[in-house]
Specification:
A 6-stranded parallel sheet has the order 5-2-1-6-7-8, sandwiched between helices. It has a 6-stranded mixed sheet with strand order 10-9-11-14-13-12. The model has no long low-confidence stretch (mean pLDDT 97). Helices cover 30% and strands 24% of the residues. It is of the alpha/beta class and 339 residues long.
């Protein structure tokens, strides 16, 4: 019988935490005991794991006794506060927030791109899950980089409201209903109405005019790809519930034709090629929602530069962009590193 592992889900009642639970079930992760942790407000709620009830407990510094792996998705402040406590109790933390991503002693991992980085987990006992938009982009670009060496990336994102959490999902639904009934929508989650609108702001603006989300894509891509790639990003929130889309332009050192790029994507781990424009086939959020693959299409050569390609990249931001990626990390961790 294979070893069973004791798991804690921090932020179990949130959108990503709930998806982490579902992914553990779907992927038949060898769970011994499971502990659901959340704020005092959610303590006492009863959720399930594999058909059995699990009571949500309040997150405290004493919550991690006997836990082998703690999956965190409760925001950066809680991760900074409670990851050290989990580590002190002997748990390895896989953190979905931005708290540890750029720490040089914390590996930032996308299993299809840099699984070897997981070996560095023992430096701090923490492995960081990248930003959702970064994850799907590097999954699509990894095979192209290996073949032709990417020099520069220009990316524009079209990000679903679920990236902000359940409150944003609820607000989009309420705003749409309100507008259809002739009522003025309430605006609480975002700076402006999101229903039937696009917001070219995700996170706060920095002194350089870029948002935090945009700079995450710049810095995280370089760390994950282990290359000094020039990256510039524009991140936009769109009125879609699930599934982030990206328009990605790359320049490479070696020439890649569109057909060569299609063949590389077709064979790449974690990717699904959907690229037949004559039949109206290209990736859409409705295709990716509920799936773990990164969908790639609209591959074409950039005629304005010598070695350029354009791609359209779509993935479920809650699954591959967060929960599934974390569980994949945990799978590699138990297979190759933990005893």
């Amino acid at each position: 019988m294979s070893k069973l592992w004791n798991i804690a889900i921090v932020g179990a009642t949130g959108a990503v935490g709930s998806q982490m639970i579902e992914c553990l079930e779907e992927r038949d992760f060898p769970v011994g005991t499971i502990r659901y942790l959340a704020s005092a407000r959610s303590a006492g709620e009863v959720l399930e794991f594999r058909g059995r009830p699990v009571v949500v407990e309040e997150l405290t510094h004493d919550s991690f006794e006997g836990i082998d792996i703690a999956l965190f998705s409760a925001g950066g402040d809680r991760s900074r506060e409670f990851c050290p406590s989990a580590r002190k109790a002997g748990a390895v933390c896989i953190d979905n927030s931005s708290a540890w991503r750029m720490d040089p002693d914390v590996p930032l991992v996308v299993p299809e791109v840099n699984p070897h980085a997981i070996a560095q987990y023992d430096r701090k006992g923490i492995i960081a899950n990248p930003n959702c938009s970064t994850i799907q982009m590097v999954v699509a670009l990894k095979p192209l980089h290996d073949a032709a060496t990417i020099k520069r990336i220009v990316v524009s994102t079209y990000q679903a409201v679920s990236g902000t959490g359940k409150k944003a999902i609820d607000e989009l639904e309420q705003q749409v209903r309100g507008l259809m009934q002739g009522r003025s929508p309430e605006v609480r989650v975002y700076p402006h109405r999101i229903a039937f609108n696009c917001l070219p702001q995700i996170d706060a603006f920095g002194d350089n005019g870029y948002t935090g989300e945009e700079m995450k894509m710049v810095n995280e891509t370089r760390k994950i790809m282990e290359a000094d790639i020039r990256v510039t990003a524009t991140a936009v929130r769109v009125p879609v519930f699930y599934g982030h889309c990206e328009s990605v332009n790359i320049e490479t050192e070696k020439k890649l034709t569109a057909d060569q790029a299609r063949q590389l994507i077709k064979k790449a781990a974690g990717c699904k090629l959907v690229d037949n424009v004559s039949k109206g086939l290209y990736p859409m959020p409705t295709d990716a929602a509920g799936q773990d693959l990164t969908y790639v299409g609209r591959i074409r050569e950039d005629e304005s530069v010598e070695n350029g390609l354009n791609l359209w990249v779509v993935a479920d931001n809650i699954r591959k962009g967060a929960a599934t990626n974390a569980v994949q990390i945990a799978e590699i961790l138990i297979d190759n590193y933990l005893k």
